[in-house]
Design a protein that fits this description.
Elements lengths: L6 H5 L1 H19 L4 H28 L5 H33 L6 H32 L4
Protein backbone atom coordinates (compact mmCIF):
# COMPACT_ATOMS: atom_id res chain seq x y z
CA UNK A 1 0.00 0.00 0.00
CA UNK A 2 1.23 3.49 -0.85
CA UNK A 3 1.78 5.92 2.03
CA UNK A 4 3.30 9.39 2.24
CA UNK A 5 6.51 7.84 3.55
CA UNK A 6 7.08 6.52 0.00
CA UNK A 7 7.21 10.02 -1.50
CA UNK A 8 10.74 10.91 -0.35
CA UNK A 9 12.43 7.72 -1.63
CA UNK A 10 10.66 8.20 -4.97
CA UNK A 11 11.94 11.79 -5.33
CA UNK A 12 15.56 11.49 -4.16
CA UNK A 13 16.86 10.42 -7.55
CA UNK A 14 15.85 13.65 -9.30
CA UNK A 15 18.16 16.17 -7.59
CA UNK A 16 21.04 13.68 -7.79
CA UNK A 17 20.62 13.07 -11.51
CA UNK A 18 19.77 16.66 -12.49
CA UNK A 19 22.57 18.31 -10.53
CA UNK A 20 25.20 15.73 -11.49
CA UNK A 21 24.30 15.76 -15.20
CA UNK A 22 24.09 19.55 -15.29
CA UNK A 23 27.44 19.99 -13.58
CA UNK A 24 29.02 17.45 -15.90
CA UNK A 25 27.79 19.47 -18.91
CA UNK A 26 29.21 22.66 -17.39
CA UNK A 27 32.52 20.87 -16.81
CA UNK A 28 32.67 19.67 -20.41
CA UNK A 29 31.87 23.21 -21.55
CA UNK A 30 35.08 24.41 -19.89
CA UNK A 31 37.04 22.36 -22.41
CA UNK A 32 34.73 22.87 -25.40
CA UNK A 33 33.85 26.57 -25.30
CA UNK A 34 32.41 26.43 -28.82
CA UNK A 35 29.56 24.22 -27.62
CA UNK A 36 27.37 26.88 -25.98
CA UNK A 37 24.50 24.40 -25.79
CA UNK A 38 26.39 22.58 -23.02
CA UNK A 39 26.33 25.53 -20.63
CA UNK A 40 22.70 26.31 -21.52
CA UNK A 41 21.69 22.73 -20.78
CA UNK A 42 23.75 22.85 -17.57
CA UNK A 43 21.87 26.00 -16.57
CA UNK A 44 18.44 24.43 -17.13
CA UNK A 45 19.46 21.27 -15.29
CA UNK A 46 20.71 23.40 -12.40
CA UNK A 47 17.38 25.20 -12.13
CA UNK A 48 15.43 21.94 -12.34
CA UNK A 49 17.84 20.31 -9.87
CA UNK A 50 17.40 23.18 -7.40
CA UNK A 51 13.61 22.86 -7.63
CA UNK A 52 13.85 19.07 -7.25
CA UNK A 53 16.16 19.51 -4.24
CA UNK A 54 13.64 21.82 -2.55
CA UNK A 55 10.74 19.43 -3.14
CA UNK A 56 12.78 16.42 -2.05
CA UNK A 57 14.03 18.22 1.06
CA UNK A 58 10.46 19.13 2.00
CA UNK A 59 9.28 15.56 1.47
CA UNK A 60 12.04 14.32 3.76
CA UNK A 61 11.15 16.83 6.45
CA UNK A 62 7.40 16.21 6.42
CA UNK A 63 6.91 12.61 5.31
CA UNK A 64 9.60 10.56 7.07
CA UNK A 65 9.56 9.16 10.59
CA UNK A 66 11.89 9.78 13.49
CA UNK A 67 14.91 7.55 14.11
CA UNK A 68 16.91 6.92 17.25
CA UNK A 69 20.40 5.73 18.12
CA UNK A 70 23.03 5.25 15.42
CA UNK A 71 20.38 5.49 12.69
CA UNK A 72 19.25 8.81 14.14
CA UNK A 73 22.80 10.16 13.98
CA UNK A 74 23.18 9.08 10.36
CA UNK A 75 19.81 10.66 9.58
CA UNK A 76 20.95 13.97 11.13
CA UNK A 77 24.05 13.94 8.92
CA UNK A 78 21.86 13.08 5.91
CA UNK A 79 19.56 16.01 6.75
CA UNK A 80 22.52 18.36 7.17
CA UNK A 81 23.93 17.53 3.74
CA UNK A 82 20.43 17.69 2.21
CA UNK A 83 20.02 21.22 3.57
CA UNK A 84 23.47 22.20 2.33
CA UNK A 85 22.74 20.71 -1.11
CA UNK A 86 19.43 22.50 -1.45
CA UNK A 87 20.85 25.82 -0.28
CA UNK A 88 23.86 25.69 -2.59
CA UNK A 89 21.79 24.61 -5.59
CA UNK A 90 19.29 27.42 -5.01
CA UNK A 91 22.06 30.02 -4.58
CA UNK A 92 23.84 28.86 -7.76
CA UNK A 93 20.54 28.87 -9.66
CA UNK A 94 19.68 32.38 -8.46
CA UNK A 95 23.07 33.70 -9.58
CA UNK A 96 22.73 32.04 -13.00
CA UNK A 97 19.13 33.27 -13.41
CA UNK A 98 20.27 36.78 -12.48
CA UNK A 99 23.03 36.64 -15.10
CA UNK A 100 20.58 35.40 -17.74
CA UNK A 101 17.84 37.94 -16.97
CA UNK A 102 20.24 40.90 -16.80
CA UNK A 103 22.02 39.66 -19.96
CA UNK A 104 25.33 39.61 -18.09
CA UNK A 105 26.34 36.03 -18.89
CA UNK A 106 29.78 37.32 -19.91
CA UNK A 107 30.44 38.34 -16.27
CA UNK A 108 33.23 35.84 -15.62
CA UNK A 109 33.49 36.53 -11.90
CA UNK A 110 29.84 35.81 -11.08
CA UNK A 111 29.72 32.89 -13.48
CA UNK A 112 32.81 31.37 -11.82
CA UNK A 113 31.27 31.87 -8.37
CA UNK A 114 28.11 30.13 -9.55
CA UNK A 115 30.21 27.32 -11.05
CA UNK A 116 32.08 26.81 -7.76
CA UNK A 117 28.81 26.75 -5.80
CA UNK A 118 27.36 24.33 -8.38
CA UNK A 119 30.41 22.07 -7.84
CA UNK A 120 29.92 22.18 -4.08
CA UNK A 121 26.20 21.37 -4.49
CA UNK A 122 27.09 18.40 -6.68
CA UNK A 123 29.56 17.04 -4.12
CA UNK A 124 27.03 17.66 -1.37
CA UNK A 125 24.23 15.83 -3.22
CA UNK A 126 26.49 12.77 -3.51
CA UNK A 127 27.23 12.90 0.23
CA UNK A 128 23.52 13.27 0.94
CA UNK A 129 22.82 10.20 -1.16
CA UNK A 130 25.58 8.26 0.57
CA UNK A 131 24.09 8.90 4.00
CA UNK A 132 20.57 8.22 2.75
CA UNK A 133 21.76 4.94 1.29
CA UNK A 134 23.48 4.13 4.57
CA UNK A 135 20.14 4.55 6.36
CA UNK A 136 18.37 2.25 3.95
CA UNK A 137 20.99 -0.45 3.52
CA UNK A 138 22.77 -0.50 6.89
CA UNK A 139 19.79 0.14 9.12
CA UNK A 140 17.08 -1.36 6.90
CA UNK A 141 14.98 1.76 7.39
CA UNK A 142 12.98 3.55 4.75
CA UNK A 143 13.63 7.25 4.45
Amino acid sequence: MFTLSHVHPMLVHFPIALLAAGFLLELVYLFRKKEVCLTKAGFYLLVLGALAAMITWLSGMFFTGEMEGAAGQVRETHELFATITMSLAVIAAIIRIYLAVKKKEDNKTLKNVAFAIYAAATISVFLTGFYGGTLVYNYMMPL
